[in-house]
């Protein structure tokens, strides 16, 4: 199995109408999100895919770095021009849901989940992370960028990550074609994108059921402060805000940037 992403194989398996049809492949790139933000607006399309085999300065949530082994994983960004002007975190979680559903179909049912706000766990270890960013021209949204780092065939992790990170190959026990996997992933994302545009409540229900801690009493950290009370996790609404119930039965909502969920 080649360590280089084979664009021709990917194209053969891609069945989307628009997502990923325009592909920009780089052997090495500091960050697919940074490239996607800096490229001129008239040089990309709705659904452009930017992918690299070696992301040297990948970024995650809270400016954390994303570590990946060259040629073993999927590190890519998709460029979107949505008609909706709100609920972008719901779209990010829609992509996370796609990863969860795909992993459950490949490895084992119900072993993957979404860890708030934008990680995906497989057998309680991190297998993917998402980072959504926006580009504006004046007051107008020029593009929405969703970056995804997905551990596919990596077998060795740094000592400090061994207990918390995993890959599809480690859990499945055999290597996986990154090209076929990505083609399947984009097809599912394109479908979920349509549901998100239509503001389908069934999509939100599906997302919520797959968030770690859903329906349970959890501890919250809001704006960096740990709250003493417990709250029941309800899930997100169509704008992507997280809903929780307090012990008096009152409903509270938070923007995803504000809040972290502690389930242990």
UniProtKB/TrEMBL annotation:
CDD domains listed in its UniProt record: BPL (cd16442)
Gene3D superfamilies: Bira Bifunctional Protein, Domain 2
UniProtKB keywords: Ligase
Lineage, uppermost ranks: Bacteria, Pseudomonadati, Balneolota, Balneolia, Balneolales
Source species: Fodinibius salicampi
Tagged with keyword Ligase: yes
E.C. number: 6.3.4.15
Record's keyword annotation contains 4Fe-4S: no
InterPro entries the record matches: aa-tRNA-synth_II/BPL/LPL, Biotin_CoA_COase_ligase, BPL_LPL_catalytic
NCBIfam families: birA_ligase
PANTHER family in alphabetical order: BIOTIN PROTEIN LIGASE, BIOTIN--PROTEIN LIGASE
Single GO MF descriptor: biotin--[biotin carboxyl-carrier protein] ligase activity
Listed name of the protein: Biotin--[acetyl-CoA-carboxylase] ligase
């Amino acid at each position: 199995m080649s360590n280089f992403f084979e664009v021709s194989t990917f194209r053969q398996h891609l069945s989307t109408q628009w997502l990923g049809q325009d592909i920009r492949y780089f052997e090495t790139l500091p960050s697919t999100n940074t490239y996607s933000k800096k490229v001129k607006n008239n040089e990309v399309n709705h659904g452009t895919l930017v992918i690299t085999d070696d992301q040297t300065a990948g970024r995650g949530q809270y400016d954390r770095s994303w570590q990946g082994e060259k040629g073993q994983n999927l590190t890519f960004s998709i460029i979107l021009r949505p008609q909706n002007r709100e609920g972008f975190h719901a779209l990010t979680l829609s992509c996370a849901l796609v990863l969860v559903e795909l992993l459950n179909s490949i490895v084992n049912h119900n072993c993957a989940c979404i860890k708030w706000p934008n990680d995906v766990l497989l057998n309680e270890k991190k297998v993917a992370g998402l980072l959504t960013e926006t580009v504006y021209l004046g007051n107008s949204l020029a593009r929405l960028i969703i970056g995804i780092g997905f551990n596919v065939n990596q077998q060795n992790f740094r000592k400090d990550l061994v207990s918390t990170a995993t890959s599809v190959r480690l859990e499945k026990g055999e290597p996986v074609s990154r090209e076929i996997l990505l083609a399947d992933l984009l097809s599912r994302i394109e479908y979920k994108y349509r549901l998100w545009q239509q503001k389908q409540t069934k999509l939100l229900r599906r997302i919520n059921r797959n968030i770690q801690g859903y329906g349970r009493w959890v501890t919250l950290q809001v704006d960096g402060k740990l709250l003493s009370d417990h709250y029941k996790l309800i899930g997100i609404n169509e704008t992507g805000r997280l809903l929780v119930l307090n012990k008096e039965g009152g409903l509270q909502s938070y923007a995803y940037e504000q809040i972290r969920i502690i389930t242990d």
